[in-house]
């Protein structure tokens, strides 16, 4: 494991950097000669062919100083080769062994913050991601590892009331199938403990949207484009049948377009307000909004009419009519009756107690 090194111990530092039974190293953004030499080493690893001018710009030093740091690396035994000409520059020679992963202090702390932001349960070392994060933190050098560990230990993360974490094995199978262009047989359970079913799909992409993971695919069960929550995919098995990826596919755009389609209950709502005013209050999950005369129409579907009426339509501050969807119309009527009753009760004598 790497430890802290002094500026006059660059050869020993380079020896540690060049080999050892660790998987995580460290770089530094400091201004000491050792810090800049190690930063130069990292730059040459990431960008072979870097010129002295480019190296100087990345390090924030003069061209002459950049060449001096290259010389320091060579004196430490790091094989840095240089090539002249328009395609020349510095590159690491054969035999240079570097740490597979390296972090600056800011990167290490940023990693911990991102993990806790996306998965509050990672504060628990028994959590799958929490255990992985702990291994990374323990592998860091003492100074940086201590700060990362303190951040993890003392940052309180509020639990997500609606956690939706996909099974890593399922996600891996789907990604492999996308790369191999092979059809997948999935087992899926609808939200709210609904029905379970199986379907063959052509997996096009995995898209992360607002902390939710979606599979964008062509469903042979529905014979249409579908978006499935990956945390609801119970099983995934790659089939041998190949498929052709749609040309010019924009996964995020197609996902947004189809989030509100394919559910059990059709919805068609007309708003008595211009498209430009209504659009900011609706989202892809509600359906497709289009202009219609002086107003606009929202066409989509839902599996939960009560939620669609109470959480989504009720939040839109414009008059509307439910044109189609008896289930949605009934949900809106029930919600209106509840609100009317609540308003009437509030106005009765003695209602305040």
Briefly say what this structure is.
By secondary structure, the protein is α+β, with helices and mostly antiparallel strands.
Strand residue percentage: 15-25%
Instruction: Kindly state the percentage of residues in helix.
Output: 25-40%
From the N-terminal CA to the C-terminal CA, the straight-line distance is 69 Å
Q: Roughly what is the average pLDDT, rounded to an integer?
A: 83
* CATH architecture type of the largest domain: Orthogonal Bundle
Mind telling me the CATH superfamily name of the largest domain?
Winged helix-like DNA-binding domain superfamily/Winged helix DNA-binding domain
Stretches where pLDDT is under 50 for at least 5 consecutive residues are 1-29
How many independent structural domains?
A: 4
| Topology order in helix (H) and strand (E) letters | HEHHHEEEHHHHEEEEEHEHEEHEH
The counted number of beta strands is 13
Structural class comes to alpha+beta
Q: Please report the number of helical segments.
A: 12
Task: Kindly describe this structure.
The chain has 353 residues and is an alpha+beta fold. The chain folds into four domains: 95 residues, Arc Repressor Mutant, subunit A (Orthogonal Bundle); 51 residues; 91 residues, SH3 type barrels; 80 residues, Alpha-Beta Plaits. The chain is 39% helix and 24% strand. It has twelve helices and 13 strands. The strands form four sheets. The chain has a five-stranded antiparallel beta sheet. The chain has a four-stranded antiparallel beta sheet with strand order 11-12-10-13, with helices on one face. Helix 2 crosses helix 4 and helix 3 packs across helix 4. The N terminus is likely disordered.
């Amino acid at each position: 494991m790497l430890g802290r090194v002094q500026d006059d111990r660059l050869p020993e530092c380079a020896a540690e950097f060049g080999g050892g039974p660790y998987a995580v190293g460290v770089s530094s953004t400091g201004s000491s000669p050792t810090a800049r030499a190690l930063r130069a080493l990292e730059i040459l690893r990431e960008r072979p062919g870097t010129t002295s001018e480019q190296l100087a710009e990345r390090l924030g030093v003069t061209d002459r100083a950049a060449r001096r740091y290259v010389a320091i690396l060579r004196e430490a035994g790091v094989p840095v080769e240089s090539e002249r000409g328009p395609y020349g520059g510095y590159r690491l020679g054969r035999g240079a062994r570097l740490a597979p992963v390296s972090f600056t202090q800011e990167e290490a702390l940023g990693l911990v913050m991102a993990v806790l932001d996306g998965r509050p349960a990672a504060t628990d070392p028994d959590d799958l991601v929490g255990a992985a994060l702990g291994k990374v933190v323990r592998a860091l050098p003492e100074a940086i590892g201590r700060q990362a560990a303190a951040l993890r230990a003392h940052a309180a993360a509020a639990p997500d009331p609606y956690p939706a974490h996909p099974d890593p094995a399922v996600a891996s199978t789907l990604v492999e199938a996308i790369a191999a262009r092979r059809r997948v047989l999935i087992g899926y359970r609808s939200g709210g403990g609904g029905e379970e079913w199986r379907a063959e799909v052509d997996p096009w992409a995995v898209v992360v949207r607002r902390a939710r993971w979606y599979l964008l695919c062509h469903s042979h069960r529905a014979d249409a484009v579908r978006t499935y929550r990956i945390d609801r995919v119970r099983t995934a098995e790659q089939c041998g049948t190949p498929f052709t990826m749609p040309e010019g596919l924009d996964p995020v755009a197609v996902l947004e377009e189809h989030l509100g389609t394919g559910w059990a209950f059709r919805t068609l709502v007309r708003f008595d307000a211009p498209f430009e005013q209504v659009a900011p209050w609706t989202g892809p999950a509600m359906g497709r909004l289009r202009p219609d005369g002086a107003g606009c129409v929202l066409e989509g579907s839902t599996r939960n009419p009560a939620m669609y009426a109470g959480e989504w339509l009720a939040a839109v501050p414009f008059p509307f009519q439910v044109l189609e969807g008896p289930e949605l119309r009934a949900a809106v009527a029930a919600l209106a009756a509840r609100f009317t009753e609540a308003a009437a009760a509030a106005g009765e004598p003695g209602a305040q107690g």
